[in-house]
Amino acid sequence: MTATEITTSIKDRTATLKRVFDAPAALLFEVHSTPEHMKQWWGPQQWPLTTCEMEFRTGGAFRFAMTGPGGEKGPPFGGRYLEVTPNTKIVYDNGFLDDPKQETMVVTLTFDERADGTTVLTSHTVFASVSMAEEHIGQGFADGTASSLDNLAKYLADRRR
Amino acid sequence: MSAPHVHSTELDLVFGALADATRRGILAHVARHDTASVNDLVALFDLSQPAISKHLKVLEHAGLVHRDRDGQLRPVRLNAAPMQAAASWLGQYEHHWVQRLDALAVYVAKLQRERATTTTTKPTPKKQKTTKTKKKKTTNRKDAHDRH
């Protein structure tokens, strides 16, 4: 499995992930273009996409929501497609829809097909603010804090069983 | 975007509650013993009853513990869900993106396989299976060197 290359900068409010796919750009673009495809892979395993409405064109809106393992409904989120260029680029903004004060992030996906038929997919996210970047990227909490919290959560959850 | 989704306000409450060592201690104690009374906690942490009550209110407000409504002692119980949400929320952005790209790779590979088999007759250029069974006649095959 190809590794994902990750670069983040809280100062610049960015997170960039890069990955090589053994597939043509057209196919990678296609699976981003309809709810039928998106529902197959976009949500985390435990939280599949259950609401997926999308007007897949530049200026079109989208609205997503996920459902958790216990049937709990995640809040809806979405935004607009700022740019849709077939087989090449998708740009969208994204935020929670039920909270107007929520900040949004802008995600740029680029599909770069190489001569050997593989495609480099780059996902570049710009967060609205440094604090939002800090929250999402998580470094603001320092590794130790994050992992010890994780351990504590695990410990507490185990004790419940 | 990432999940599980927790509103910032809830997260703020959880992280705020966890920022204090005494409150983390109370949580750990409650987790170990399933339940605890205010008196237990007063004795354990050597704090005044109002001080413990104040900490409990913060934990309760964050949804980390709940207290039985009936009974004079109003025992404290753990509610671990917000903690788990908070912990998994930390740094999950990267995690979910990586997971999502993995899922994308799997899905795309599956589609490619499916489409390769439905568009029959044409041999797929890349993934040609070399079967061990003897081929009697493969007239149209280009890779004639495959045959013995």
CATH architecture of the largest domain in chain B: Orthogonal Bundle
CATH C-level name of the largest domain in chain B = Mainly Alpha
Largest sheet data of chain A:
8 strands, antiparallel
Number of strands of chain A: 8
Assembly classification: heterodimer
The number of E-state strands of chain B comes to 3
Which two chains touch over the largest interface? A-B, 56 and 42 residues
CA-CA gap between termini of chain B: 55 Å
First and last CA, distance of chain A: 35 Å
CATH architecture classification name of chain A? 2-Layer Sandwich
Beta-strand fraction estimate of chain A: 35-45%
* Largest sheet, spatial ordering of strands of chain A: 1-2-8-7-6-5-4-3
Count of discrete domains of chain A: 1
Q: What's the tally of helices of chain B?
A: 6
- According to CATH, the fold-level topology of chain A is Alpha-D-Glucose-1,6-Bisphosphate, Chain A, domain 4
The H-and-E topology of chain A, N to C, reads as: EEHHEEEEEEHH
Radius of gyration of chain A: 17 Å
Can you offer a commentary on this structure?
The complex is a heterodimer of chains A (161) and B (148). Chain A has 161 residues and is α+β, with helices and mostly antiparallel strands. Chain A has a single domain (5-129), classed as START domain (Alpha-D-Glucose-1,6-Bisphosphate, Chain A, domain 4, 2-Layer Sandwich). Helix content of chain A is 25%, strand content 37%. Chain A has helices spanning 25-30, 35-41, 130-137, 142-160; strands at 5-9, 14-21, 49-54, 61-66, 77-85, 89-96, 105-113, 119-127. Chain A is globular, with a radius of gyration of 17 Å. With 148 residues, chain B is mostly helical. Chain B folds into 2 domains: 8-89, Orthogonal Bundle (Arc Repressor Mutant, subunit A); 91-126. Helices cover 55% and strands 5% of the residues of chain B. Chain B has helices at 8-18, 21-33, 38-45, 49-61, 81-89, 92-118, and strands spanning 35-36, 65-67, 76-78. In chain B, a hairpin with an 8-residue loop joins strand 2 (65-67) and strand 3. In chain B, helix 1 (8-18) packs antiparallel against helix 4 (49-61). Chain B is elongated and about 75 Å long. Chains A and B meet through strand 2, helix 2, helix 3 and helix 4 of A and helix 2, helix 5 and helix 6 of B.
